Amino acid sequence: MWLFINSVNVLTIDTLVTLSSEMLSRVQFYDELLENRRKIYQMLLNVVTICIESDCLAQALKFMNILDSLQLSEADVFERIILRFNKAFYSFKRGDKDSMKLMLEYIDMLKKLDCLGTAEKLFSSISDFVNM
Fold first, then answer.
1. What share of the chain is helix, strand, coil (3-state, %, to 5)?
2. The domain that contains 9 carries what CATH number?
3. Exposed, middle or buried: residue 84 (CB in 10 Å: 0-12, 13-18, 19+)?
4. For 20-76, where are the E strands, in sequence order?
5. For 72-119, what is each residue's pLDDT tens digit?
6. In this predicted model, what pLDDT tens digit does every residue of 7-20 receive, in sequence order?
7. Contact partners, residue 86, CB within 8 Å, separation at least 6
8. Is 56 helix (H, G, I), strand (E, B) or coil?
9. Tens digit of pLDDT for each residue in 38-81?
10. CA 107/CA 84 separation, integer angstroms
11. How far apart are alpha carbons 57 and 98 in whole angstroms?
12. Total of domains in the chain
């Protein structure tokens, strides 16, 4: 799973979606362990971000729905923020220009929590749209 999480950026979108679905079918046996759940969240969040950036919105929605079904705990604050950001990014890509304000708020939250690398990465993914 670690190898897959760290190689998602070099896969084609079709390969990414196929492998992600296959990975999910195999990791459900291990989701009781906290560390494995976190890896599943990380994998799904990365896949959702890439799908949205690639305008594969149907696939992004599929994986966001899976994340919603996992019912992230309150302790998973980082993952919750990234999921909310992705939902706003998805809405933006679907034409809701008001979602930009939400995305910038989530980026600001990450900065306040000293998650500067993640905040920068997310801002980079939307920078072309910020002044629209």
1. 80, 0, 20
2. 1.25.40.400
3. middle
4. none
5. 888 889 999 999 999 999 999 999 999 999 999 999 999 999 999 999
6. 777 888 888 888 88
7. 45, 48, 49, 52, 60, 64
8. coil
9. 888 888 998 999 999 999 999 999 999 999 988 888 888 999 99
10. 11
11. 18
12. 1
Alpha-carbon distances, residue 64 vs 46, 77, 113 (angstroms): 11, 16, 23
State yes or no: pLDDT of 125 exceeds 60.
yes
Tokens 């897959």 identify what position? Answer: 4
| DSSP secondary structure code for residue 74 in this structure | T
Q: Tokens at residue 12, please?
A: 């084609």
Tokens encoding 87 = 């939902």
How far apart CA 110 and CA 18 sit, in angstroms, is 30
* Contact between residue 109 and residue 120 where contact means Cβ atoms under 8 Å apart: no
